[in-house]
Write a structure and sequence with these properties.
alpha+beta; single chain
Length: 185
C-alpha cells in the first residue's frame, strides 16, 4: 500500500500544480473597437449576453465602443456615441470562453461587414435590427448577430434559433439558397 501511495503522490502533486492558463483572447481593457453586427441589449439594464438575446435595445453595426472593464465572465464597454455603458456576460450555456465569444461581436473597423452590396430587404432588416422574410444569411448575421451556438450549432444550417429572453425563442428558417422564408416567434 505504501508503495502504491508513493507512486500516486507525484501524479497527485502534478495534477494540483498550477497549469499555465490559456492565452487570453478577445478585447482587452482600454481597446477601442467596433460592433461587428447590431447588438440588442436589455435597454433598462444595459446588459447583453453571449446567448445574444434579441432584446428591444439597439446598438448599430459599426458602432465604436471602448472596453472599460473585463474579467473571466463579463466585459463592460462604453458605446461612444451615446456614452452609455453596457455589460456583456458569458452564459454558462455558451461553450466558448468569454474572449472567444467577444470576437464574434467586437472587432476592428476593417472587420465590419460591408452591407452595400446586399439586397434592399437585407439593408432594411439591418436598419431595423431584425430578420425579415427575403433576407440572406449574411443580412441576418449583420442585423441580429450570430445565433447562440447551444441552439444553432452552425450558421450552415437552415434553421437558426435566437432567444428573445430566457423563455421565448425566435426561429429563422432559410430555404436551400440561404434566403429567409419563415420566422416563428
Amino acid at each position: 500500500m505504501h508503495r502504491f501511495l508513493t507512486l500516486l503522490l507525484p501524479l497527485f502533486l502534478f495534477s494540483c500544480s498550477s497549469v499555465p492558463a490559456t492565452p487570453d483572447v478577445g478585447p482587452q481593457v482600454g481597446q477601442r473597437l467596433v460592433t461587428l453586427s447590431n447588438l440588442h441589449p436589455d435597454p433598462a439594464r444595459h446588459k447583453l449576453s453571449s446567448l445574444n438575446y434579441q432584446q428591444a435595445g439597439f446598438i448599430p453595426v459599426g458602432s465604436t465602443v471602448t472596453i472599460t472593464d473585463r474579467n473571466r465572465s463579463k466585459l463592460t464597454f462604453k458605446e461612444e456615441e451615446t456614452g452609455i455603458e453596457y455589460t456583456f456576460e458569458r452564459s454558462k450555456h455558451t461553450p466558448n470562453s468569454l474572449g472567444e465569444n467577444l470576437t464574434l461581436f467586437f472587432g476592428t473597423p476593417d472587420q465590419v461587414p460591408d452591407a452595400s452590396g446586399l439586397s434592399e430587404i437585407d439593408r432594411e432588416g439591418i436598419q431595423q435590427g431584425a430578420a425579415l422574410i427575403g433576407m440572406t444569411k449574411t443580412g441576418v448575421l449583420i442585423a441580429c448577430g450570430p445565433p447562440p451556438i447551444h441552439a444553432t450549432a452552425s450558421t450552415d444550417l437552415f434553421v437558426w434559433t435566437y432567444w428573445k429572453n430566457r423563455w421565448a425563442t425566435r426561429v429563422v428558417r432559410f430555404d436551400s439558397n440561404g434566403i429567409v422564408v419563415r420566422i416563428d416567434g
